[in-house]
Amino acid sequence: MQLTGKNLIGNKLSGINPQSFKGHGGHSGIAFHEATVGEVDQAVAIAHKAFGSYKNTSGVERAIFLERIAQLIDESKGELVAIAMTESRLPEGRLMGETGRTTGQLKLFASLLREGSWVNAMIDPAIPDRQPLPKPDVRQMQRPLGPVAVFGASNFPFAFSTAGGDTASALAAGCPVVCKAHPGHPATSELVASLIVQAANDTGMPEGVFCHLQGEGYEASVHLVSHPAIKAVGFTGSLGGGRALFNAAAKRNEPIPVYAEMGSVNPVFVLPEILEKEATALGQKLAGSNLMGAGQFCTNPGVIVAVKSKAQEQFTEAFKTALEAASADNMLTDKVFSGYCSNLGKMASLRGVTQLVGNLTAKEGVAAIPHMFQVEASAFINNPDLQEEVFGPSSLHVVADNAAQMKQVSDILHGQLTASVWGTEKDMKGHSELIGTLESKAGRVIFNAPPTGVEVTYAMVHGGPYPATTDSRSTSVGTNAIYRFTRAVCYQGYHQALLPEALQDANPLSITRKVNGQFTDKAL
Amino acid sequence: MQLTGKNLIGNKLSGINPQSFKGHGGHSGIAFHEATVGEVDQAVAIAHKAFGSYKNTSGVERAIFLERIAQLIDESKGELVAIAMTESRLPEGRLMGETGRTTGQLKLFASLLREGSWVNAMIDPAIPDRQPLPKPDVRQMQRPLGPVAVFGASNFPFAFSTAGGDTASALAAGCPVVCKAHPGHPATSELVASLIVQAANDTGMPEGVFCHLQGEGYEASVHLVSHPAIKAVGFTGSLGGGRALFNAAAKRNEPIPVYAEMGSVNPVFVLPEILEKEATALGQKLAGSNLMGAGQFCTNPGVIVAVKSKAQEQFTEAFKTALEAASADNMLTDKVFSGYCSNLGKMASLRGVTQLVGNLTAKEGVAAIPHMFQVEASAFINNPDLQEEVFGPSSLHVVADNAAQMKQVSDILHGQLTASVWGTEKDMKGHSELIGTLESKAGRVIFNAPPTGVEVTYAMVHGGPYPATTDSRSTSVGTNAIYRFTRAVCYQGYHQALLPEALQDANPLSITRKVNGQFTDKAL
């Protein structure tokens, strides 16, 4: 595959901006042209045009498109992973796994489309002789919103970027995508983008169903989310970046859904009886989760809470020992690394915080030295700054005096992607109020497993209350992510032939529907 | 029932503000105390506290609560309608029907709760021996967001007010409600509110599950939607009022869903063949829809589009005749009436507009004289001001040169609650692109029926793209309205006994669930 450093507007390469930036890694000869606001306009215009026909493609047609993207990525994964390694500094095994996850997501959405029931078809047949007025025939199903802006994430060059979850779910829903690549991996993004466009052409999708823009600056991104023809936004990244896009979108005349997944400290509560039984093993296990991928997962456990005890001290010691034994791991970008360093400094300076592991002053290259801090629960409860995410291999251990104070910690937590509880059955029964509170704070509550590792499955929720995301009603992982980009449309009194197939009496797609509120696979 | 003019904060009456306002009608002796920001805080605090236990009530418990509200409204409907007549100037028959609709909504949500499958339970069982990593047990269901702010609407003193759709769906979802009454019918609202609180006490619901605030000013409303413990907002009213609340909520640190249903002109396209066949009857029928309730329905047909022809002229003539024969009907409030008059003036002043019916200068009391305007499609296409809603018995008739220009009219339409098409089967087949465009503009597309009259049913969508609403993914009518106030929570690796009943293996609620993506009623 040939790198060009240009933006992709439909089938055309475009790089009119003399302003450009260079990535780092094995393509350092290439200058990536910042997308201009004019190019953003062109991309959105062709995406808007594509929507006119793309919204009317069948689920099977879109499934074939998604499967073709997966196939092309699979065929090129050696080349893609090689360049992603140089751009992201992530190891080959991890990136190979991530391409598998990415193609797996695409294929999962394809299977959802082939099955077809995801449209939530509902039919309430007419009752012409109802008194005092006839009851009309009313049907509804999910329909695509329109062109979607997707922003690539730094920490998943494949699974949350160009052909990642938001792109897969938007394309599955019937929405064209204008993707803004993360400047941390522009080359990987360009190559993946060219495969998506090739797949669109191979499978007869309209030109403009996918566009790809490069840039380090904010101007084009803000212009993109402000464009009247953009009908939703997907973003994964920092609280600062996500909030800036959310605020820009909030200035639009027409409000649109903005799904920004941002910071989360993914609190972990370790309960007394399990601590007594497995202090050392648990300390090692959670340290492993904290260190994974240089701590650069959205679900990295950043706050760990336990009640003061001998066992808790053993747990802390085991966690500490595991961190001390770990080597420094390269971070994704210089910016991510400098952010890590400055957040460590902030954390160390906060009242009541003790540093147990790490050397704040050691800065070689972009290798993140693991850090570990401790604070008493009373201090944590009174200082919201202690809840700020340190993106990287760092954790804050909160020590409570007793179960009641541990419950208070849960009460003041901000919104989270995940919250975890480790406990025996007795522990769990004795802390049901704590568990109930966590349910109101997080998108996913986990028993006895590390938060890292997000299963791509039907029932997954990767989302949660603010600041974890800007819209807690949604998930970015799992099949329900398709509903980010759809709305229900109601069809009243339609002729059969003009109804979408999903709503026709004969049920030609053989999908599960709700008729008068009851699920059925049958024709009417 | 005894009117007090006070706010209801849990079980306590509160009227500490010396500032008060008087409604009009049969209770003119009563001063209604404006809720202070302190009273708003108290109401939200008790609602937040109530959420702690209310979120854990069973569906059946909440069904009993909703049914009790319906029963109490039904028992008092004579008294309620009598006072609502004096406050809203709406006729007895209409208000009696509206109480039936209100109790019907409450009972529909109760039946949804009793059936139980609405929680969208999904289960992906563990695969402990999966390679390379075990698959965890992942389950999800819908859970309530927290306390909700509901704003009563002027035009439906019952069905979209204190015990209206938003209150019913929020209470059904498990969310306490802080309701701000519409100042157009404070007495009706207070009486209904007292019945809701009585029903909560009768059925063992926590104090604060429903609070009720009065006020004419904006300050308390803005304070309410800005309160950190409020997790969603429901509003039905004007574009100005809805947008002001939306903007206030947009300034929050934590973004929350704001469901503001605002203006809609509910465009109606009348196609050529049906015009040829039924011009006069159609003109009469649509005029009837336009006149209904003094034109004060959200779905009132405000823009009517047809291609120039003899039949179209006949249609226009029949519409005109029906309007001229109609008597002036009282509007809801002085403010609504003065808004109608000033919007008529604006409409008449716009370039290309011809007034066919009405006398702009006639202003007696609050009786709205029907109006009818006409404009050429070319002018309509070029002036977005012509799309502004005139709330009341007024319509703008857009005359297109040909089918292509009629399609252009559909292309430039703003978002709508409804869009309607009248046509024969041949008409419909010949205008499939027009119909496809309308689908992207409206929450509901209607064939051959007036837009007024919104069926409360499973498949109804009462919503649509901006400016019809601020969140097109939602409906305010029908059972799906419950999802305004919920989000999915994911439970990973839970012990059976700690899982919500809806997610337990044994399926003790006998609901329909998705297991590995497949619908089933069975236990695991």
UniProtKB/TrEMBL annotation, chains A, B:
Keywords tagged on the record: Oxidoreductase
Database matches in CDD domains: ALDH_KGSADH (cd07129)
Domain Aldehyde dehydrogenase, first and last residues per copy: 31-464
Alphabetized Gene3D superfamilies for the sequence: Aldehyde Dehydrogenase, Chain A, domain 1, Aldehyde Dehydrogenase, Chain A, domain 2
Pfam family, one: Aldedh
Protein name (Swiss-Prot/TrEMBL): Aldehyde dehydrogenase (NADP(+))
Source organism: Imperialibacter roseus
Lineage: Bacteria, Pseudomonadati, Bacteroidota, Cytophagia, Cytophagales
